[in-house]
Amino acid sequence: MTISVMSLKIKGWRKITKWAIWSIVGVLFLVFLVRVATFEHGYYSGKEGTERASATNLADEEELIEEKPSSDEVQEYVVAPDRPRYLSIDKLRISKARVLAMGINVEGELDTPRNIFDVGWYELSGKPGQGGTMIIDGHNGGPHVHGVFKDLPLLSKGDIIEIERGDGIIYKYSVVENKAVSLDESNDYMVTASKSPEAGKESVTLITCTGEWSQAQNTYLSRQFTRAVLIEG
What we know:
Blueprint: H1 2-47, H2 58-63, H3 71-75, E1 84-89, E2 94-102, E3 119-122, E4 133-138, E5 160-165, E6 170-182, H4 183-193, E7 203-214, E8 219-232
Parallel strand pairs: 2-3, 4-7
Antiparallel strand pairs: 1-2, 1-5, 3-4, 5-6, 6-8, 7-8
């Protein structure tokens, strides 16, 4: 009986010890999580307003493609004869960026291509050679790599934008205006951007994000609008 009682006491002591150890581990883990959360809050608050803070939305990072299309993929890209196929801007070293037809996303905004080296043509806007105004947007960059329109703010009056149509005809547009508009005012400015800067002339408007990065809003705080009119095509 003595041995039996001693055995019960030992087992009970082990259970208490295991419980105590796991309790301590649990408390330490909770403290760790609190410290991590506190650090992240301080870190991202410090990044607010900087030119570029790394995106925290993992889904957004996974959706974007940061690899340039191969020369074969570019060459094999085909669209209808009257639609924009490629965009080129010599000054920005953009050569035959694929132009993908885009609509409006679930948030009511112009959608953009998944690949940050492609550009998006709003399919309800004008077409090259048909007298309207084309709306084309592109990425400033992805989480790790600069996008096709990163240097769009560098364009100045008179710089040339080329749009090649599906049938191979190239249309050239001369920049008339290039300006950054605050995010709050950008929606209203779209009314202006959807029209030609020179009455009666076909035009194209290029749009991208620019300015400071807002971690709170998960976007840049300005939009760049580059407007150009047809001079040849």
